[in-house]
Write a structure and sequence with these properties.
The protein has 367 residues and is an alpha+beta fold. 28% of the residues lie in helices and 16% in strands. The chain contains eleven helices and 15 strands. The strands form five sheets. Strands 4-3-15-14-13-10 form a six-stranded antiparallel beta sheet, sandwiched between helices. Strands 5-7-6 form a three-stranded antiparallel beta sheet. A two-stranded parallel ribbon has the order 1-2. Helix 2 runs antiparallel to helix 11 and helix 3 runs parallel beside helix 7. The longest helix is centred in the middle third of the chain and has 15 residues.
Length: 367
């Protein structure tokens, strides 16, 4: 078992349905030389069926496929999936990691929280413009009451709370760890504690456990499996790579799953997947964005000019987690790409040098 791949194999098969390798192929329906134009596909819930389409059918460069696999294996990858229009093009597992093994999402899970928050707002259970203290209670931090009244849910969503990120433990959500540094909305910094409080905000707003609300509103509706587990201060999601791909497919279709609207607020989805503020244009509501003029990365205060992932399509938005957990969504190409595994890039949190290197290999395959 890799120390970077926390696998929850145990008895999850008794709790969640598992997906096998029995995929439905559509290669007989398509002539190899014809351009492929397909309707959006959604794998059925509670089933191991998932339609596939080959790189050859998509007229991709199959000569680059093995080079991609070799690169992924060299970079401590456990699971890698590419979906096109919802269909599996590539599904590869490495080492002793298998299709039904569960893996830690790390901060890719932030995208679930953002989506759940949008659902709660669409049901009028809260507003992202509400003051955090309305749901956390007065004294949730070491700030004065007046200072707490200035922080809204939107600030937590956009990493602009103004809480001090230079504390000894930036994951700590105890009131003693939450101190004042900047006015809300005036500085962007990737502060995990500020994000983690959103789980409690949501739970108090919807008047039920966060995981229960997630299960009812997203997980069960799109056929995901997995479980939330508390590790230290963090609430972390574990699932198969296919479940992450399902959630990515929901994102690709802007909150709609096989005709059922899961996130009933198009304006929120648009705001969630576009620049939320000017200080880090590459950040939406807990989603990372490509194709912007500047970006900041976790752990650093300075801003960098240019695109977050130069080799990737400009319209890419993503969930990016520690140790290079990746969920890429590319609307212009109808792609969802999932990577789970150990650290491969130079940064341990979120974006890393691995993103650009991986997209070089992906481009070689699909071009």
């Amino acid at each position: 078992m890799k120390n970077t791949s926390i696998l929850i194999s145990l008895s999850l098969s008794l709790l969640f349905f598992n997906c096998s390798t029995d995929n439905t192929k559509i290669e007989d329906e398509i002539e190899m030389d014809d351009p492929v134009v397909l309707e959006a596909y959604f794998p059925p819930n509670n089933s191991d069926i998932w339609e596939t389409i080959t790189p050859s059918q998509l007229q991709w460069n199959t000569n680059a496929e093995q080079e991609l696999f070799d690169f992924l294996e060299e970079q401590d990858t456990d699971a890698f999936i590419i979906l096109k229009d919802g269909r599996i093009v590539i599904e590869q597992y490495f080492g002793d990691f298998e299709q039904n093994d569960n893996h830690l999402w790390n901060s890719v899970g932030k995208t679930i929280t953002s989506t759940i928050l949008g659902i709660a707002q669409s049901e009028s259970l809260l507003s992202i413009n509400d003051i955090s203290a309305d749901y956390l209670g007065e004294g949730w931090s070491s700030l004065s009451s007046e200072q707490e009244q200035q922080i809204t849910i939107w600030n937590h969503l956009t990493m602009t709370t103004g809480l001090d990120y230079t504390v000894d433990d930036p994951f700590c959500t105890d009131a003693a760890c939450l101190t004042y540094k900047n006015e809300p909305g005036e500085f962007w910094f990737y502060h995990n504690a500020a994000y983690t409080l959103l789980d409690q905000i949501i739970a108090n707003a919807v008047d039920e456990d966060f995981e229960t609300f997630f299960n009812a509103k997203i997980k069960n509706k799109i056929g995901m499996q997995g479980v939330w587990l508390k590790l230290g201060f963090n609430n972390n999601y574990f699932s198969t790579a296919r479940s992450m791909a399902r959630f990515g497919l929901l994102n690709l279709n802007q909150g709609v799953w096989d005709g059922e609207t899961i996130l009933d607020d198009a304006n929120y989805f648009s705001a969630m997947t576009n620049s939320s503020q000017a200080m880090n244009q590459a950040y939406g509501y807990l989603y990372w964005l490509n194709g912007k003029d500047n970006y900041r990365v976790p752990g650093l205060e300075q801003s960098f000019t240019g695109k977050l992932i130069p080799n990737a399509p400009d319209d890419l938005f993503a969930g990016l987690g520690a140790n290079d957990q990746k969920m890429y969504i590319v609307p212009s190409e109808k792609l969802v790409i999932v990577r789970m595994g150990g650290a491969a890039g130079e940064s341990i949190l979120g974006p890393s040098s691995f993103d650009n290197e991986l997209w070089e290999k992906i481009n070689a395959l699909k071009n």
